Amino acid sequence: MAANDTSPTAVRIPPFIQTVLLVDDKQENRVALEAMLDDGQIHFLHASSGATALKMLLNTEVSLVLLDVSMPGMDGYEVLQMMRSTRSTRHIPVIMLTAFLRDEMETLRGYQAGAIEFLTKPINSVMLRCKVMQFLALNQQKHQLKIAYERLDTQKAYYESMLNAAGEGVIGLSTEGEVRFANPAALNLLQLPQPDLLDQPFRSFYPPLEEQPNHWEASDFYLAWSEKREIRVEEALFGSTQRDAFPVQYTCSPLAGCTKGTVVVFVDITQRKALENQLRMQAMTDHLTGLYNRAGFKAALLHALARCTRHHGQMALLLIDLDRFKQVNDTLGHESGDKLLQAVADRLRHTVRQADTLARLGGDEFTVILEHLDGAEDAAYCAAKIIEALKHPFQIQDMELIIGASVGIATYPACGDNPVALMQAADVAMYRAKSDGRNLYHFFTQEMNDRARTKMVLEQSLHHALTGQQLRLVYQPQIDLRTGQIIGLEALLRWQHPTAGLVSPATFVPLLEETGLIVPVGNWIIKTVCAQRQDWNRRHVLPEDCKIAINISPRQFVDENLARMLRQHLHQHQINPASIELELTENMLMQENEQTLHILHQLHQLAVSLSIDDFGTGYSSFSYIKRFNLDALKIDKSFVDQLAESERDVAIVASIIDLAHNLRMKTIAEGVETKAQLDVLTCLGCDIIQGFYYSPPCQVAELESLISNSMTAGMPLRPNHMPSQAGMPPPAPSC
């Protein structure tokens, strides 16, 4: 492969093929040289003069030059001197060829000019080939070494650019803990110039803190190198003379290869920590008031208990429940309710001490954690201040709203040493304050706790009472005063607890209301009454016109399924609707809204009778009596008790009877226990009486016997001649 005096710019050299330049003024000499050396792996260039050779050398990468000494114009020595004076050609190896017998001076001149070998013509082809191949092999190694260095330089530049562009700080440490390398990100994060960090000990960026080791051998950086493992630390503190300590996350690893030391890669997590704290605060803060929420309160209470335990201090927990807030919320809407809660929170902030902890648990319940108390009187003083502060009117949307607060107080360690115990104690005390008249505070006592535990046990037992067949119905006769015959029955609920025995309705009926069980229990009562009435009808136990009265609770009254469920049982048991009477309370009918009207319309369509229970004890109003089609008014026992001694009670009962009769309603007097009460009621024209004077509430078998005896004799029902009648306990409240 040869090229004669070819322009070097046009020469395309195949990759990995070395080029040998043959310089001789005689072409036959060049051809002979090429024939000696050509093995198919060498590219040859031919130059007939020194000037042409120099031009080719400047434009072509040449591995070896065979240069003739004697040439017209520029001889070989001059060409060699020109090559060695030029940067791009000075390192190209040159073998000089001469036709003259060489003497020592000629040889020395050639070597001084830069030749690597000096051969005399005629050329020994074997010797020439050996020398050329040796020099080309050396050049090949040189070429490969150059490529390796170029690749290393490329990789170095690549990795340096990556390190310089990385957002993470990278620091290289020696085995003695001195900084040997720091990328721009590390310098920027530490706010240090490179000279202030390089060759400095690791303490220049790793400040000695209580939670961070002070000695190099105890640090993670040393352990990573000495134990040849990667160590990752989620949170630590870095800093410098130019920047205060800041949170970082770092990984330290031993350097690979022969280099000893540790590389530390770290990121600044200041923003992440701030975001985490913000999210944590949001999770623990009530968005409406800015106070702690339930989660924040629990955490604050745990910390307060830990401090008090450590320092043997006293603390108190105040549970605040707003009085009449629900009325504001229901009447004015949630927007006004929210503004009121915000105003309450603001007023509480200005009432308690700065060191006290305020929280809103939800709804209208707030708490205050009081620490550093000298005694329980400090908690009482704070509770009194809160009640007084919340008594004053609130201006909400151009309206003046007046509310109040009931406060329960639980103290540490007297009422408990954990959050659950303190909350339960404060809750019990708060409900006691509400039951005592509101706008009060109450300390928790053991007596309250006993009552609360009893209530809780009963509440839990109530869930099993219905499925466990512990509930039953008794029936109290209602007597027509004109005939003395049984004209009706009132179904009353009883609970036979398996261990506590017979539980008073005054105890468990309010619990049924609170837990919402009153609805399924009320449905069970209706179903049981209908089934019992069907059985009595089949056996002709009761007259057709004898009604059975069922008490309807407020929660059951507003249940949308009441009319449908009642219709279903009437139809299923083939009961005449007129033989069922539903007893409602005045409070149910006082809210003359669309819902109340719709419910009453549904009940009227069923053709059941409706009566008002405990008339006169609630919010009595002629408006609903006139508007709603009712069948009877029941005179409450509280008006009957003193009927024989109190002219006022006589006047009230007389007015109720006259009102009912004028509106074509009947009157039923409850709780009649003496003949004197019976005589007054008879004189006043009362229609029906119910009470212990004639009969206590009876179980089904007892009632059937009573009715059978009365019907067999064809006589009015005789008074109940039970021993010590005057000492009989009053009948239990009805469900």
TrEMBL record:
The cross-references to InterPro entries, in alphabetical order and at most eight, read: Biofilm_reg_signaling, CheY-like_superfamily, EAL_dom, EAL_sf, GGDEF_dom, Nucleotide_cyclase, PAS, PAS-like_dom_sf
Biological processes annotated in GO: cellular response to nitric oxide; phosphorelay signal transduction system
Is Phosphoprotein tagged as a keyword?
Answer: yes
User: Is Phosphoprotein among this UniProt entry's keywords?
Assistant: yes
Keyword annotations for this protein, in alphabetical order, are: Phosphoprotein
Gene Ontology MF: a single term: cyclic-guanylate-specific phosphodiesterase activity
Give residue ranges for domain GGDEF.
Answer: 313-446
- Do you know which Pfam families this protein is assigned to? EAL (PF00563), GGDEF (PF00990), PAS_4 (PF08448), Response_reg (PF00072)
Q: Which reaction does it catalyse?
A: 3',3'-c-di-GMP + H2O = 5'-phosphoguanylyl(3'->5')guanosine + H(+)
Positions where 4-aspartylphosphate occurs in the chain: 68
Q: Where is the EAL domain?
A: 455-711
Residues covered by the Response regulatory domain: 19-136
Q: Where is the PAS domain?
A: 155-208
Q: Which NCBIfam families match?
A: GGDEF (TIGR00254), sensory_box (TIGR00229)
The molecule here is called Diguanylate cyclase (GGDEF)-like protein/PAS domain S-box-containing protein
**What organism is listed for this UniProt entry?**
Chitinivorax tropicus
